[in-house]
Amino acid sequence: MPPQRHANKVLRVLCTTYILLSLTVQWIVVWVLQATFIVLSFPFTTSDFRQDICGHIFRKISFVGMDLLNPFWHIHVLNKFPEVKKKKVILMLNHLSAADPFMSIRSFLPRDGTWIAKGELFRVPFGGWALYNAGDLAVRFRDKKSSFATVKGTVGPMMENARGRLRRGRMLCVFPEGVRNMTPDGPINAFRLGFFSLALDEGATIVPLAVSGTEKLWPRGSAMMDAADAYFSFGEPIDAANFNSAEELAQHVWNVMTERREQHPDRVELRAAQAKEQAKTPGEATAEEKKSA
Hints:
- By secondary structure, the protein is α/β, with parallel strands linked by helices.
- The chain has a single domain (9-277), classed as Glycerol-3-phosphate (1)-acyltransferase.
- 47% of the residues lie in helices and 14% in strands.
- Strands 1, 2, 3, 4, 5, 6, 7 and 8 form an 8-stranded mixed sheet that branches.
- The model has no long low-confidence stretch (mean pLDDT 91).
- Residues 89-214 form the Phospholipid/glycerol acyltransferase domain.
- It comes from Leptomonas pyrrhocoris.
């Protein structure tokens, strides 16, 4: 095995070991702190207040363990969370990796919100229990082969719970693609319309958050993680009241998110590399290709 390849493999093993150990410790600590807070505050607080505080506990500890103290993953937030005047806010971000919910926290601190997550995550010991305590909402899919097929009768109640969070001023954090993008170098997937309809109904403000590079941190379908950089940037707030349909609103958010993402340094570098590759003459070969031959 070439030295460079061996070094990369060692780095990935170290990164994976750190992330898994860190997640285990974080989830146990979060759940213990949440449970302690719930017990001590139960006689004096509402369930909504307890969920909100448990959400802050979860996200702040995740930020420390997965981001601040993580020597392998480097997060770059390219601009600040925009000023939003309305209390009903939906944060929407494109989805590339299981790392996205953890690594996006830096971009909107000190805020927190209710996350919409896969139902199976709520069954994970400690971590899933912490999601439940935080009041996060589950999307329940029928099976892994049909990612968009939800369990009948579960979407309506989940959306009503989301509406309730929105009305009391709790930000919603949503992946409008629905699932992780299978081709991260390509375009953002088309958006599902559910939360755009909710935004229209409630007159909410959508804050687009463009994500790139997280697929390198925690590659989809791989048991190994890797050291890399990821980038986040916000688009201007979008008032749903200015649009006539969920389709029109979704397309506008998609356009804004795509435009922001394409300005990220890694995307600029990718396009430059693609252009260089396309510029090669058919008979031209790189030094690496000649060596391989």
